[in-house]
Inverse folding.
């Protein structure tokens, strides 16, 4: 968390979404993380929670009762706590939506209808509204009413089976589907704002985690099923993690020259001929990594990385998350910033882009439950 000349400039440029108001009625990760991204870009984000709080506030690792994952997906927002079964509170939400550019919800499809918050109803009170509805499987169809969670989407879309590569499937240790859905949802929301301004009409955007992960998986995961008459086996070889004398590294030689240099580096240029004679690309890749595995264990990771750097062979360490935080390039890029919260100082990650050379620092911590009720609802 180092400083740079950028942070010392008196001029603070406007953020791209300054002046855009977002009302977010979401829980878990996909919707909240999407809204946080828009907030990082300058939007004012009002998070609407139950009076008992977003259920995800208490999830997992916590400090003083506030979940850390929730904190990391809800930075820089304002919190309004409402009981939507109460007629007055429901009207408060509608009033907030009346003044919004974008309204995001990730309820199951029937919930909006039961509350009188369908797009057809909301466009009457806000003709310039962009509504983004994020569901698990879509607004209708055989799975529309089913609960959707990250691991379920990974399993249904084929990702877990593909990653297993003939071994026992297992989910990732990160909420991949939720976070990918959030990234796409933010992109979809921005396109909706553009369309609203172009057409001068309200816009309803609908997406689902099933649709998003299918789109995300397709380019490489279905490489052998892209042509309708293709019944080939999977041809892309998995990327192995290779052991060294003191740890692990990843190695990604993609050209013949890089493969050749790798074999020379490990002291076995004679293996080139054997590999040339393997016609099947996947088998050749498997054999290549199998051959170099033993010699790589003879030196430590730092030594190998220096050797491969000099040879222009793509290689990198397998860093634990804590080591990643100390990475010189991470520090140079100023990715992490401190934020003060009632629970203590937190590390926050900035938006991953610069605008005309200006980076977008995290704007503020996650809000306390209902902290903006009085100011926003005139109570």
């Amino acid at each position: 968390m180092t400083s740079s000349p950028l942070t010392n400039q008196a001029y603070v440029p406007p953020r791209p979404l300054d002046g855009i108001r977002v009302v977010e009625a979401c829980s878990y990760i996909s919707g909240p993380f999407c809204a946080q991204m828009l907030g990082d870009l300058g939007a004012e984000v009002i998070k609407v929670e139950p009076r008992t709080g977003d259920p995800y506030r208490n999830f997992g690792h916590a400090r003083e009762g506030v979940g850390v994952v929730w904190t990391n997906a809800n930075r820089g927002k304002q919190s309004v706590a409402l009981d939507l079964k109460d007629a007055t509170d429901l009207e408060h939400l509608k009033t907030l939506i009346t003044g919004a550019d974008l309204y995001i919800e990730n309820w199951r499809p029937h919930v909006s209808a039961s509350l009188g918050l369908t797009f057809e109803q909301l466009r009457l009170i806000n003709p310039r509204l962009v509504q983004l509805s994020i569901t698990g499987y879509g607004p209708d169809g055989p799975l529309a009413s089913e609960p959707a969670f990250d691991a379920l989407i990974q399993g249904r879309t084929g990702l877990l089976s593909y990653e297993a590569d003939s071994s026992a499937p297992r989910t990732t240790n990160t909420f991949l589907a939720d976070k990918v859905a959030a990234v796409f949802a933010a992109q979809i929301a921005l396109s909706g704002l553009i369309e609203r301004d172009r057409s001068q009409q309200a816009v309803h955007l609908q997406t689902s985690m099933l649709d998003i992960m299918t789109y995300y998986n397709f380019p490489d995961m279905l490489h052998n099923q892209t042509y309708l008459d293709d019944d080939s086996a999977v041809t892309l070889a998995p990327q192995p993690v290779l052991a060294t004398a003191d740890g692990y590294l990843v190695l990604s030689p993609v050209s013949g020259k890089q493969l050749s240099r790798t074999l020379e580096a490990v002291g076995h240029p004679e293996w080139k001929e054997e590999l040339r004679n393997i016609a099947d690309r996947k088998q050749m890749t498997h054999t290549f990594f199998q051959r170099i595995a033993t010699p790589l264990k003879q030196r430590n990771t730092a030594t190998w990385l220096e050797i491969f750097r000099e040879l222009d062979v793509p290689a990198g360490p397998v860093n634990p998350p804590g080591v990643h935080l100390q990475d010189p390039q991470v520090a140079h890029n100023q990715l992490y910033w401190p934020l003060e919260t009632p629970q203590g100082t937190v590390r926050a990650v900035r938006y991953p882009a610069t605008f005309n050379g200006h980076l977008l620092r995290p704007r503020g911590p996650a809000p306390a439950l209902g902290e903006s009720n009085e100011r926003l609802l005139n109570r």
